[in-house]
Amino acid sequence: MKTPRPALVLIAKLRARLRASELGLVALAIGVGVLAGVAVSAMTLIVNFAHVVIYGIPFEVRLSAAQRVPPVAAFAAPMLAGLALGAIDHWRARRKFPPAVDPVEANALRGGRMSLTESLLVAAQTVMSNGCGASVGLEAGYAQIGGGIASRFGINGRLRRQDLRMLVGCGAGGAIAAAFGAPLTGAFYAFELIIGAYSLAIAGPVFAACLAATLTTKAIGGAPYVISVADVPPLTFPHYGALIGLGLLAAAVGVGAMRSAALIERAFRFVVPSRLFRPVAGGLLLGAMALYTPQVLGAGHGALELDFYWPLSARELVVLIVLKLFASLASLASGFRGGLFFASLFVGSLLGKLYAIGVTAAFPGLGLDPVACVLVGMGALSTAIVGGPLTMTFLVLESTGNLAIAGGALAASIATSLTVRATFGYSFTTWRLHLRGETIRGGQDVGWLRELTVGKMMIPSPPVFLADKSVRAFREAYPLGSANVVVAVGDDGRYSGLVHVAEAHAQTLADDDDGGPLGLIVHLPATTLHPDDDIKTALDLFGAAHADTLAVTERDDGHALGTLGEAFAARRYAQETDGAMKGVLGGG
């Protein structure tokens, strides 16, 4: 059934008004936030129900806080779910489906374009993984489905590239805000990790989406990952120095964990080459650890609440840190879906508690409160692994309402962030993309650089001349003023070099002198661009070759396709950069 023409006209007018109006974008962001909140609540409810059914725990008890779990369930649940996830992965590999695009990759490389179908699949896989007890969090699934919904809305509304990227940030940030009941945390998650920038132009929609998502989840049943603590004594100047030391320790642990992730993944691929059975092996390993302590199961929210004030020895803390990190990394490496957001919060709290024991033993007169170390450790390790120092600082602030502790968390998180950037340079998300061959360091929009290729900018079908013909023949074919640069080619059409027409005519030739083969006066015979090179590659090559014009050839056979001038390429680069900056800063 065809849509009537008046309806199409009305839809087109609504889309145009939506794209042109800031209030329209805010309204759309609120809608995205509400749907993200509903998705978070639904995913959480399904997972909690699965834990109750599979492990026989009370509904109000978190899986990782259980005293013990049935051995049969500890092994069978992750192994069977792993087999199902392995079957999906095996099927997708046989069909040669590309990996699902997450919000960071979508905003960095694809202008905010994500597949809602793929996002639903990732969310379902995350629910299956966490529901069976795998040591992963639901936050990755929350952000994925929030970003996927937002991207679908933006694509259908034909939003501009920057508006679509902003809306994906609203969806992902709204989902995180709903998960923790923390709108500021969700907003800065969007700014720092998904959009990669902060400006007044995007602040309104992002804050509106995060607030709407938080209120929606509270209305349905409450945020699933609320962190609440008692009052903490004020911090003194020496305390800040000690907490910065905790930040440096968290950076070392975080970098070590991220580097270990690649090694553990290689080990799984070596030991279990089959995609089908690799998650089963991960489930077997997880079941064995769960028999020692159920705290390795799930995201770790229940275990964090249990261990927050529970007295643990240094040895117990070290064992729990190692087990939880290994369980989380092994779960992801073997094929389970999920994130490390809450796992890093849990491990960070244990690290802070361990640090407090060490500081108290070494400096008993310092009076550093252990709860402050626990909170700052949470924020610092999450900054190291997930990224976003302000995101984690606001999480601590919204959890405690204590500005002094938030200040300590900010100092430690900045120290962590600077150390990780200087020594490693990636968050866990961008590190996994790096292992796949990508080079992005965050959600900053670099996709337009790759989309602006030489093939789109070149002048096709350039003037050509055979390189083995004489200079005199060339001068007759191309008089002064007929062209600036001519491409010299061989008999097979392969590129041989560039000839400047004015230079060829500047040679003095006797009546009986043909000037010799044209190939003797060509320039840059081994320097060419290719149609798939991006603008940055082209400008770098112009600079290295000290050339005003370069030939464009086929990458495989060297046939000449066109030419590109440095001035034109630089102008296009400036235009695109200006457009990208206006989109971020709110220009026209």
Main sheet strand line-up: 1-7-6-5
Our measurement of the CA-to-CA distance between the termini, rounded to an integer number of angstroms, reads 38 Å
Any idea what the radius of gyration is?
Answer: 29 Å
What is the count of structural domains? 3
How helical, in percent, are the residues?
Answer: 55-70%
Task: Write down the CATH topology of the largest domain.
Answer: Clc chloride channel
Count of alpha and pi helical runs = 24
- CATH homologous superfamily assignment of the largest domain: Clc chloride channel
Note the main sheet: 4 strands, mixed
Please report which band the strand proportion falls in: under 5%, 5-15%, 15-25%, 25-35%, 35-45% or over 45%. under 5%
Q: Could you state the oligomeric state of the chains shown? A: single chain
The CATH C-level name of the largest domain is Mainly Alpha
Class per helix and strand makeup: mainly alpha
- Poorly predicted runs are none
Number of strands: 7
What would you say the CATH architecture of the largest domain is? Orthogonal Bundle
Which descriptor suits the 3D outline?
Answer: elongated
What average pLDDT do the residues reach? 88
